[in-house]
Specification:
The structure is a single chain. The chain is of the alpha+beta class. It has a single domain, classed as Rieske Iron-sulfur Protein, CATH 2.102.10. Helix content is about 15%, strand content about 35%. The strands form two sheets. A six-stranded antiparallel sheet has the order 1-9-8-4-3-2. The N terminus is likely disordered. The structure holds FE2/S2 (inorganic) cluster. The site of FE2/S2 (inorganic) cluster (FES) has 9 residues, from loops.
Length: about 130
């Protein structure tokens, strides 16, 4: 709902701020980045959001997950590696990550950052903020 205060320029700004605070989650934290149909023939979609390389993955149960895709070892692009089931292996030195959790499964390492997804119909929205560990 938008409340109108008049036609003065300063009041128009107030109107916009009011709109954003009414639906902060939709308008400020999540952005549409993909559609479910894009995953009919692909297991992941890579994107760059706010200077982060992120990919959305679809697992064997048709669930979706989003993680940062720069390897924790030496920053290689993990989407250039191999995806076997839920395990994503870095093309450079073989560190392997679980796409559902971002956890490294074969070395003692911090997990990859994860991002929350919302699916509405065919649209996939991603949070611009990583999930807190
Ligand atoms: S850069 Fe990924 S394992 Fe070395």
């Amino acid at each position: 709902m938008v409340t109108r205060f008049g036609n003065l320029p300063g009041l128009v700004v107030c109107e916009l701020l009011f709109t954003y605070t009414k639906e902060p989650e939709r308008l400020m934290d999540y952005i549409k980045v993909a559609s479910r149909g894009e995953f009919d023939s692909a297991r992941f979609k890579r994107m760059r959001i706010l200077a982060r390389n992120i990919a959305i993955f679809k697992d064997d149960n048709d669930s979706f997950f989003a993680i940062e895709v720069n390897c924790k070892h030496q920053n290689a692009d993990l989407t250039a590696g191999t995806l076997d089931g839920d395990l994503l292996t870095c093309p450079r030195h073989g560190w392997t990550y679980d796409i559902r959790t971002g956890a490294c499964v074969n070395y003692d390492s911090a997990p990859l950052r994860r991002f929350d997804l919302k699916i509405e119909g065919d649209d996939i929205y991603i949070s611009i903020h990583p999930v807190e560990a």
